[in-house]
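Team,

Forwarding the record for the chain on the shared tracking sheet. I've put the sequence and predicted structure together so nobody has to dig through attachments.
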Amino acid sequence: MKDAFGIPQSLLILGGTSEIALATARRMIVRRTRTVWLAGRPTPALEEAAEQLRALGADARTVAFDALDPESHEEALGKVFAEGDIDMVLMAVGVLGDQALDEREPVAAARVAMTNYTGAVSSGLVCARALQ
């Protein structure tokens, strides 16, 4: 629930190791956001990001999330929404790809598109329904 000043108290980041999203989370924690969920592939980088946010005073949690597996989005993100209110969802799902490789290999280009578009659409719709 947003506080009396309209500051979100809880944040879900889809793409939990995004540098831009983590910088946003740090700013929000300074302004009183208390719970931050990092949704991403379970890697040391995801856990490290959560630890950094905890050091700032947030209750930072992680959830295994793979943008390339839309069939798992409802279950994975449902766990987050079952834990309590989420005031804000920050969509940071995406990969940069490799332009030269993607031009040579259609499968590589399709993987970038599936991550950046299909994964974002699926997870975004799951979140939108949960927030209604």
